[in-house]
Design goal:
The protein is mainly alpha-helical. The chain has 14 helices and two strands; from the N terminus they run H-H-E-E-H-H-H-H-H-H-H-H-H-H-H-H. A two-stranded antiparallel sheet has the order 1-2. Strand 1 and strand 2 form a beta hairpin. Helix 6 packs parallel to helix 11.
Length: about 325
């Protein structure tokens, strides 16, 4: 009997050569070219000015320049803490932004769901157009409209109150009512435009799921509660994380044009970090103090984003940013 020996052949494994960095750049040149405007923007406006942070640690002297001015360490930050301005500015800025984020997102979700439930396409398009218009109105014009309504002498509000026999209201000397005015104005201006993202997310939902739920007897409220709202959860979390990154960045245009920069009577409830920095630079010409507040704002915002992302990663890892 003849024995046949089979010679085993080891499989030839082709080692994938590592592409050089230049080849990877050339391979993705189209994507990099599309990203270039954003890269240039952040390089010029975010990274090149970074050495100017040193201004927060010196007593700036115009004749000496930033790097030759006297180094004072944390003296500018200590001054802000001792005067109490830092805590008031931080509280006002965070309180306003939380109101903007929470109320704004819930209203945007509600508007997107209502638009989705409209069956008349003609009425839906008109409704979308009307709701988008406030977003494109300049903050200067918004401030002018607010002044014409709230002015003590010539405002529409006081004219109406006098017409019905009531006493006029001194709006620009009453700090207690301005948080409501600012929040309502912001929601009026941003809700319609902000609902686009949620409306687009709803459009990405498989319609067969909604049709199947309707066949099974689910009414409109049940479809919204058990299908549409859970579908919008990842979008809401991502937008929330992005918004938290700017929780210490106030809407300067809105505050400046509604309240103004020099109305000291309204400072307790309307002064935020941006208006304080603007005032220290343009009125007091204290560049070191303004830079210290801005640096504090950036560092605080960074830690808020990291903390919020860590919490989301623990609760819902698939929805975290990184």
């Amino acid at each position: 009997m003849k024995t046949v020996t089979v010679q085993s052949q080891t499989p030839i494994v082709k080692t994938k050569t590592k592409e050089s960095r230049f080849k990877r750049i050339w391979k993705n040149r189209t994507l990099l070219l599309m990203c270039m405007p954003a890269i240039i923007f952040f390089a010029i406006f975010a990274y090149l000015p970074m050495p100017g942070l040193y201004l927060a640690f010196v007593n700036y002297d115009y004749s000496l320049g930033i790097f030759n001015s006297a180094f004072v360490g944390l003296e500018n930050f200590r001054f802000l803490v001792m005067t109490g301005d830092l805590w008031k500015l931080t509280f006002n800025t965070i309180a306003y932004n939380l109101a903007f984020i929470i109320l704004g997102n819930f209203l945007q979700i509600a508007v997107a769901i209502m638009l989705n439930e409209l069956r008349n396409k003609w009425f839906k398009k008109i409704s979308q157009t009307i709701m988008f218009l406030p977003h494109f109105i300049s903050a200067v014009l918004v401030g002018l409209l607010a002044y014409n309504i709230l002015s003590y002498d010539y405002g529409l509000l006081n004219s109406f109150l006098e017409l019905v026999g009531l006493d006029p209201v001194q709006t620009y000397s009453n700090p207690a009512i301005w948080p409501y005015i600012i929040v309502i104005t912001f929601l009026w201006q941003s809700t319609g435009y902000g609902s686009i993202v949620y409306f687009a997310a709803i459009m990405g939902l498989d319609k067969s799921i909604l049709e199947a739920a309707e066949i099974d007897g689910a009414n409109a409220f049940q479809r919204i509660r058990y299908i549409i709202i859970p579908w919008l959860k990842p979008t809401f979390i991502i937008l929330l994380l992005f918004s938290l990154g700017g929780v210490l960045k106030g809407n300067f245009g809105l505050f400046y044009n509604l309240v103004g920069a020099n109305n000291t009577m309204l400072y307790p409830t309307t002064d935020i970090i941006e208006t304080y920095v603007f005032r220290t630079l343009m009125t007091n010409f204290n560049f070191s103090l303004g830079s210290a507040v801005s640096l504090y704002q950036s560092i605080f915002g960074f830690f808020i984003v990291i903390t919020a992302n860590w919490i989301v990663k623990k609760v819902s890892p698939e929805n975290s940013l990184f």
